Protein: EB1 C-terminal domain-containing protein
Amino acid sequence: MKRYFDLNYNGEPYDAVTRRKNQDLFYILGAGKVAPPPKAGQANKQPAARPAPKMSSGVTSSGYGGGAKVVSSNASSAADKAQITKLEGQLAELKLQNDTLDKERDFYFGKLRDIEMLLQ
Structure:
């Protein structure tokens, strides 16, 4: 699917009115009819005149599964370590809250099951 898009997309925004040659969709299809699917190879015979515009976020990647390149310096290293320590503390706290909530959920689910058994 991506290969088809890359081969046929010319980089311009889609314009439905121009695509159907300024005709109303009702008159193109007729009342109660469905458009036939395009035949293979006839969807867009125009070659891709120019490639799709490249979108960059400023983050570089080192190939497949590479992830962002990390540039480190001594000045930011201490600040980064402090932030990592702070985030690890928050993570531990959230894990503890999650475990507590899981136990509470299981407790009340058990009580609900007991009530259902009494009602039967």
Observations:
- Residues 42 and 81 are 58 Å apart (CA to CA).
- The first helix runs from residue 2 to 8.
- The radius of gyration is 29 Å.
